[in-house]
Specification:
InterPro entries: ConA-like_dom_sf. This protein is mainly beta and 398 residues long. It is 3% helix and 49% strand. Strands 1, 23, 25, 26, 27, 28, 29 and 33 form an eight-stranded antiparallel β-sheet that branches. Strands 4-5-34-24-30-31-32 form a seven-stranded antiparallel β-sheet.
């Protein structure tokens, strides 16, 4: 990363809990607390980068134990240990619709949410059947969700807004071995404070019918408050919180900081770049908003802010490609700053001086406490001089 030193020699990393990632074999594995996660693409089996996420809580209990009584069942049964799950263990459950054509569901224990964005997710794989409805329900007046086809890897229908759940959307992401992480998102209202994640099994035509033996495989349910899903957090008898990933360099002599000029280059993947929330790639700062160089994404707009003694100058541009690797290089000195993104011509502005900085945060804001990238930082390099516009463009085009 920054200069030719080991990660631990440069970077202070903390996370007050274990956390999960995909390894180079495409298996979900747990890293201990305070251990950085270099996540891999479970299909390509190649590194995606350092995974940096905000803290989140999985509100579902018995996330992998769908056979547990914590999951309510109507006209369906659950067979435990019926297949190999994404974590490589034989802990996947089979969800089987009862014989006949009648309403059916498998629903998690109740969590509490009102007037908040709620995102539910579960890993699922086709069995004899390939379709189901993944929905959020208050178990009283409203139930809304998306219709999943595990044979095609696509959502084929999305519910309209209801009395308590509005703005319904969903997604499917292949994680290998026929498994998909299926997601449903909605704004939960105030009809009541209950929210559950539910699976409604369907047959291959999408009808609510079954034969008592055919079904789908499911594992790893998760219910979070937020605008997008984060990495899996396993639970048993209680909800579990995953702490935020905090990575920083607080001694900038380790990278040979030049106090009057310099260039920073970053490679990153921002899976949630279209979400209306600030997602910081890095922040070179003094620990406040008064002096910093900080690129961040919000709702598909990349803003790179250069602030010197409280006076800010911004570069802004549209950015797209949530699964793509993006490259950014910014050079700064007194009276001149230039930015190139993904091989584009360098844009320029004129700060009064290079900011007086004392620390560098990876994937978070000026004080390391917010605006988390919720994505992957693949590379971060520092040069103790302001590179030319042509050099910046060449760096980000390579």
């Amino acid at each position: 990363m920054l200069v030719n030193k080991a990660f631990s020699d440069l970077i202070t990393f903390t996370r007050a809990s274990p956390a999960w990632r995909f390894n180079a074999s495409g298996i979900l594995v747990q890293d201990a607390a305070n251990t950085p996660r270099v996540d891999c693409d479970p299909l390509a089996l190649q590194p995606r980068g350092l995974l940096l996420e905000e803290g989140r809580t999985n509100l579902i209990t018995y996330s992998a134990g769908l056979e547990n009584a914590a999951w309510s069942k109507s006209n369906c049964t659950v067979t435990p240990a019926a297949g190999v799950a994404p974590d490589g263990t034989t802990s996947a459950c089979k969800v089987i619709g009862a014989s006949g054509a009648s309403a059916r569901y498998l629903a998690s224990a109740a969590a509490t949410a009102s007037n908040a964005l709620v995102v539910g997710s579960i890993f699922a794989k086709a069995g004899e059947h390939s379709k189901f409805r993944l929905n959020l329900t208050n178990f009283a007046s409203d139930s809304r969700g998306v219709y999943v086809d595990l044979a095609t890897g696509a959502i084929y229908q999305t519910d309209t807004s209801g009395s308590d759940f509005t703005g319904i959307s969903g997604s499917m992401t292949s994680v290998g071995g026929g498994w998909y992480r299926c997601v449903v998102l909605a704004l939960k209202g105030a009809a009541n404070s209950v929210v559950r994640l539910a699976i409604d099994p369907k047959d291959n035509s999408g009808a609510a019918s079954g034969d008592g033996t055919s079904g789908i495989y499911a594992w790893g349910g998760q219910l979070e408050l937020g605008a997008f899903p984060t990495s899996y957090v396993p639970t048993t008898s209680a909800a579990v919180a995953r702490a935020a990933d905090a990575a920083s360099i607080t001694d900038l002599t380790k990278i040979g900081l030049n106090p009057v000029q310099g260039t920073l280059y970053a490679e990153f993947v921002a899976p949630n770049m279209t979400v209306a929330a600030n997602q910081s790639i890095f922040s070179l700062s003094d620990g406040t908003t008064a002096n910093r160089i900080q690129p961040f994404i919000n709702a598909g707009v990349l803003t790179t802010r250069v602030t010197t003694a409280g006076v800010a100058a911004d570069f802004t541009s549209a950015i797209s490609g949530a699964s793509a690797v993006h490259k950014l290089a910014i050079g700064c000195a007194a009276g001149s700053a230039a930015l190139s993104v993904d091989g584009g011509a360098a844009a320029q502005t004129s700060p009064t001086a290079f900011p007086a900085v004392s620390r560098l945060y990876l994937g978070s804001t000026f004080d390391g406490l917010g605006f988390f990238l919720n994505g992957y930082l693949r590379a971060l390099r520092y040069y103790p001089r302001k590179l030319s516009n042509a050099e910046l463009q060449a760096l980000t085009a390579a």
